[in-house]
Amino acid sequence: MTTATWDAGERALLQAAFESFDEAAHTLQQSYSTLTARVEQMDLELAQSNEALRRQLHVNEAMRRHLDGILESLSTGVLVLDGAGVVTRANGAAAAFLGAGHAGDLQGRPAEDVLRAAGLTSSDRPQRIGSRVVTITGAPLTAEAGGASGSLVLLHDVTRVCLLEEQLRRRERLAAMGEMIGRIAHEIRNPLGSVELFASMVRRDSADRPSVQRYAEQISQSVHAMDRLLANLLLYTRPDRAPRAWHHAEQLILDSLTLAAHAIAKAPVDIRLDLDPRIPLIWCHEGQMKQVCLNLIVNAVQAMPAGGRLTVSLTNEAESALGVPAVRLTVADTGDGIDPSHRSRIFDPFFTTKDEGTGLGLAIVHAIVEAHQGHIDVDSAPGRGTTFTLVLPHPAPLRALPPAAVQTCVCVEESAQ
């Protein structure tokens, strides 16, 4: 009886234990399911976060490449400095300004050392690097929090600006000088005519006195020399009043060489002509353009007292700054070159380094070229010779005409003068 009753009690307890275990297992299963769902949700959220992070990294990388492209496209040199003044980044323009092979060569070096190695200082005044003129400015680099995180050093190429300022100053100076020269030339020319008249009368009335005739002839020669000088002065002051027409380019240059024969004969000069056959004509005033070529040729020959090579070339100007079709006429020599300290004054009237020069040759060239709406450049260095380059407008319509029509136009234009 007792055993049977005990077995019933044990069974009840065992049944209760199984029920408790089932409940615990059920609870555990629910917790596991909940945890699994939570893990899956977290995996999804993590994947979404990773995708957003990848997109942000892609955007940041695209932005970085874009900013790098902008930085490298700048013509202004940029140096990025840390708080200690050390270069942490530079663009290609800065490397070119400072003579570095690559922008990376500047990184890790103090900015002062980098500038000093290029012969520059931190001054904001214009400074020269080779043929360039640059200005240097600094600016603080501000972090997002508003504090300073370094600084920028900017190198600006102001070569063109300085050149334009120099040309403006020269024009203002020459305009005032030209007005004065024109007035003086007229005032001098009038009494010179009287002197020449009286000299001719003395020659006529002293046929039996050779010494007097000789003195009168010397007076007359001196008057003619002064008259030529005054004619050059007036040509300098009023070159824009002469009419222009089509003229044969090769013949014009050959005539100029013939006029310069007296100078060419003094030194063994090798003359080379490189004339584009596609440019048979140039639009100019014949006499003035011969004067330009003559002055440049004589100037080149005088720069080669021991001999050398003189090259005259005529080509099309592919991308003219004049805004119209143009031709390029160059006169180059292998002579002494021009002292850099004289470069800014070579077109000034009465400036000369020659003992017997008047200083009007290049001034007249400059005035005539400008009167033709062209421009002139000079490239020279001591010991490497000099090249004068003239860019002259070349109206397009006549270039398209057949040779016969062009010849007709030349004759009509010349007869209209």
Automatic annotation (TrEMBL):
- What is the catalytic activity of this protein? ATP + protein L-histidine = ADP + protein N-phospho-L-histidine
Domain Histidine kinase, which positions? Answer: 183-396
Stored CDD domains: HisKA (cd00082)
Q: What are the record keywords, sorted?
A: ATP-binding, Kinase, Nucleotide-binding, Phosphoprotein, Transferase, Two-component regulatory system
Tell me, what's a Pfam family for it? Answer: PAS_8
- The main enzyme category here is transferase
- Stored SUPFAM superfamilies: ATPase domain of HSP90 chaperone/DNA topoisomerase II/histidine kinase, Homodimeric domain of signal transducing histidine kinase, PYP-like sensor domain (PAS domain)
The keyword Phosphoprotein is annotated on this UniProt entry: yes
**Keyword field contains Phosphoprotein:** yes
List residues of the PAS domain: 63-99
SMART domains named in the record: HATPase_c (SM00387), HisKA (SM00388), PAS (SM00091)
PROSITE patterns from the UniProt entry: HIS_KIN, PAS
Q: Identify the EC number(s).
A: 2.7.13.3
Q: InterPro entries this protein is in?
A: HATPase_C_sf, HATPase_dom, His_kinase_dom, HisK_dim/P_dom, HisK_dim/P_sf, PAS, PAS-like_dom_sf, Sig_transdc_His_kin-like_C
Return the PANTHER family for the record. PEROXIDE STRESS-ACTIVATED HISTIDINE KINASE MAK3 (PTHR43065:SF10), SENSOR HISTIDINE KINASE (PTHR43065)
Question: Per its record, how is this protein called by name?
Answer: histidine kinase
